[in-house]
Amino acid sequence: MNSSNYYKLEGNKLVRTHRSCPKCGPSIFLADHYDRSSCGKCGYAVFKRKGQSKSKTTGRTPRKRQKA
Ligand SMILES: [Zn+2]
Fold this sequence. Notes:
Order of helices and strands: EEEEEEE
Bound molecules: zinc ion
Number of strands: 7
Distance between the termini: 44 Å
Structural class: mainly beta
Helix content: under 10%
Number of helices: 0
Strand content: 25-35%
Largest sheet: 3 strands, antiparallel
Strand order of the largest sheet: 5-6-7
Radius of gyration: 15 Å
């Protein structure tokens, strides 16, 4: 019945609800987080908010929310 949670039907058009990974290809979707979408396969991440990040974060981001 529900073949995929990554698509929804709008009218008769299939709309992608998740981003796919540009590195891994369209069949790999990014996991949705509160501030970013990330690929569980290669680690690619897209941040939803364009960060004025004060502390430079390389690689892994702390889970803690940071107020600007
Ligand atoms: Zn990937």
